[in-house]
Specification:
Elements (H helix, E strand, L loop, with lengths): L5 E7 L14 E2 L2 E2 H12 L4 E5 L3 H8 L5 E4 L7 H15 L5 E6 L7 H14 L3 E6 L2 E9 L3 H5 L8 H6 L5 E4 L10 H11 L3
Parallel strand pairs: 1-4, 1-6, 4-5, 7-9
Antiparallel strand pairs: 2-3, 6-8, 7-8
Helix pairs in contact: 1-4
Length: about 200
Amino acid sequence: MKIDQSGIVILAAGNSSRLGRPKQLLPFGSSNLIVRAVTTAINSGKGPVAVVLGAFADEILPHLSGFPVHTVFNQDWPSGMASSVRNGIDFFEELYPDTDGLLFMVCDQPWLDESVVSGLFSLQSTLNTPAAACVYAGIPGTPALFHRSVFHALRQLEGDKGAGKLLREMSEIIAKLDFPAGMNDIDTEDDYQTFLKRLSLP
């Protein structure tokens, strides 16, 4: 299952209900989490980058100005992450019909960098699997790379399950990359404060 033409979808349409403010715009270093994610995706060099927006699109868009990325507005964002996954696939199949692999990532994994992205592509290529996913706390999750043979299954996802449900179902046939720091995502204010404290450690 060779991937010749790839792309990256950043899922950033949620309304951060548990945080109470847009997690996409939480300060990170000299920028914020969405800029961090976009920069990581671009620097990985794994093809065009599309950012799926929804709840805070008007607030996020100015922060993406100047970056070579596409923005996709998910009108159905309240239904959950699965709709953003479909939007991402639809976008690439329309504008880049030769795409045979998509990496899905989120913006609230601050420790994600280009080496993890490259590792997923390398692992998928070496093991010739339909997907490659990061594993943390023993569970496969984002970021995750899917061969186009899995796009149909991704389209069948519903609600807020995202690709995690499918990855668990495919657990025996996917490539897995250990990414322990992936479990340190940001869903609440406490999560963010814990993250800031770790940044300040010597």
